[in-house]
Structure formats: structure tokens, C-alpha cells
Amino acid sequence: AAAAGASSSAPLSVIDKRRKHNVHPARHSVVTRPPLDPIVLCDIERLLASFEASNLRSLASFKALSGQFRIRDLFLTFRSGERVPPSGETVAEYSGLLFEALVRRAVDLTRSFEQRLGSMYLLLLLHELQPCRPRAEIPVLESQWRGFEQLAQELRMPRHEEGFACLHALWTGHRLSHRA
Predict the structure, then answer these.
(1) Span 64-77, mean pLDDT?
(2) pLDDT for residue 37
(3) Quick one: CA dihedral 13, 97, 41, 68, positive or negative?
(4) C-alpha to C-alpha distance for 100 and 95, rounded to whole angstroms
(5) Is the dihedral of CA 27, 31, 35, 38 positive or negative?
(6) Beta-carbon contacts of residue 109 (< 8 Å; ≥ 6 apart)
């Protein structure tokens, strides 16, 4: 009883978590594509919110801000936090998960222009910084192309040349990959 009381304040092990959630080891399914750790998504949101609050819209200002956030470390989150251990996941596949999260933010029309611009800048920077060769492509679903087209229109209106150049680099540089 004393040991049980002592272990109740200690962190749960994987086996204890299965028991707590009534998951039998033989009956749970293998996760082949685990989601990103919520902490990673929170870090991305913090960076985008800081960019939005800065009132600076250039790629250079975004690079300076992202340097403070050490964005290269996002690739080091491959096996961290509460993330389910992947089944044969490569660094390129993990990069794809990061890219998918950013594409969703870049094309989400409910987000501010600044957050979508920051998401696009971050996509371009992470694509260049990814540790795997050949570089993983950025997956874009059929339904997400409209969001990129809307962003292109918004970049044309104030003649935001640098933002449009980044979007053009993503489009023409064989960085984006069409997914049905």
C-alpha cells in the first residue's frame, strides 16, 4: 500500500497509462503516423503571434525573429514530448508533418494576413533548413490551393514584392507537392 501511494505522485509509465485508459497492449493499434507534439504547435503559434505583433513584414525581419525562436530546433522535436513513438518514420516524413501544419496555417482564411505571411515565410525557411537530403516536398491538398491563390491576391494588392517572391519560390522551386 505504501508503494502504491508513493507511485501515485510519480509520473505514469507507458504501461500505467494503458491501464488508466483501459487499453490492452495486444489490442491497441500501431500508430504509423503520429501527430506533432502540441508543444511544437504552440511554439509555431508563438512565433507567428510575435511576427504579427512586430508590425514588420519583411523576410529579413521574420528571419531575425525566427532566429530568436531557434526554428532549426523544430526538427529536433522528432522524438520528444508526449509524441507516440513512430513506426519507421523518417526525418523526411517528420518534416512533412511540420510542413502540413504550416500549410494549414498559411491557407486558413480566418487567420490574419500577417499570420499567413509568417506561415509562408516559415515554410520556406524550414524547407531550406531541413536536415534530410533530398529535401522533403511540402504537401498541399487539393482543397488548400485556393488558400494559396487568395494569399497571392492579397500579396499583389499592396505590391508586397518580397512576400510574393517567397510564394513564387515555393510554387516554382519544386517545393510544393500536390496531394489529392
Answers:
(1) 87
(2) 82
(3) positive
(4) 9
(5) positive
(6) 147, 150
